[in-house]
From TrEMBL:
Organism phylogeny: Bacteria, Pseudomonadati, Pseudomonadota, Gammaproteobacteria, Oceanospirillales
Statement: the UniProt record of this protein carries the keyword Metal-binding: no
Coiled-coil annotated spans: none
Pfam families: Abhydrolase_6
Limits of the AB hydrolase-1 domain: 4-232
Stated name of the protein: Alpha/beta hydrolase
InterPro entries in alphabetical order: AB_hydrolase_1 (IPR000073), AB_hydrolase_fold (IPR029058)
PANTHER family: ALPHA_BETA-HYDROLASES SUPERFAMILY PROTEIN, HYDROLASE
Any one Gene Ontology molecular-function term assigned to this protein's record: hydrolase activity
Length: 245
């Protein structure tokens, strides 16, 4: 059985290294989404649907249901995968990624979703300035600088395309959440200013999840609370095994 971790925007697979370090199991992989310090397949347009299809393909290659975990956009995408292809998912866990028609996109999303404005923002991206903004969200400054330094032209293009395909993602994808069947765990930062914790409560009702791990941190839970998330995941997976037995 494999644990598969999916990152968000504008992160890379590296956001999961702290969580993975605290796990007892060794059969975990952190996927690199196309364009996020990873090659982009030919003709890939970086829409939300294409990222879901890409994830489904990767899970199909594993050949057995996985323990699927997502943060930020990784949460949104894995929720969609789990609702469309429950046969691929043994357990699901995720957070900081609302799939709700009631959700209002954050400031950066509005910029990236606006043609012309998003391109100008990307062209003028300053590593130090954006790093300090991430630091204000709770990311250690050295890690923030490394993260921002990886935002190359390919990632910039993919971010813009993804967000512009997802203006109405909550209304489009929320209805299928009821079709999720995998045992689920939600983890969320209580002080998340971009995706408020109330959306964890909404998600819990939508997917009938028994638990929410509300953490004393902001948006970047895998960085800020890796040990707590790892412990909760281990317990979640153990209970998933019992339910499958």
């Amino acid at each position: 059985m494999t644990a598969v971790f999916v990152h968000g925007v504008a992160d890379t697979f590296r956001i999961w290294k702290g969580v993975q370090r605290h796990l007892k199991r060794s059969d975990s992989i952190a996927l690199a989404l196309p364009g996020f310090d990873s090659p982009v397949p030919p003709s890939f347009q970086a829409t939300k649907e294409e990222y879901v299809d890409w994830l489904i393909d990767r899970l199909e290659r594993i050949g057995e249901p996985v323990d699927l975990v997502g943060h930020d956009w990784g949460c949104i995408l894995t929720l969609r995968v789990a609702s469309l292809r429950p046969d691929l998912v043994r357990t699901w866990a995720g957070g900081s990624g609302p799939v709700s028609a009631a959700y209002e996109w954050h400031e950066f999303a509005h910029i990236w979703q606006t043609p012309g404005v998003g391109e100008r923002w990307m062209r003028s991206l300053d590593i130090e300035s954006f790093s300090r903004q991430l630091e204000a969200f709770g990311v250690p400054i050295d890690e923030a600088r490394a993260t921002v330094a990886r935002i190359d032209d390919t990632m910039k293009h993919c971010i813009l395309q993804l967000y512009r395909s997802a203006v109405n993602v909550g209304a489009e994808w929320e209805p299928r959440l009821t079709e999720m069947s995998a045992p689920s765990l939600i983890f969320w930062g209580q002080h998340d200013s971009t995706t408020p914790v109330e959306y964890a409560d909404r998600l819990q009702k939508a997917i009938d999840a028994p638990d929410i791990l509300k953490l004393e941190c902001g948006h970047f839970t895998p960085i800020q609370c890796p040990q707590a998330i790892a412990a909760a995941l281990e317990d979640h997976w153990a209970h998933g095994n019992k339910k499958m037995a």
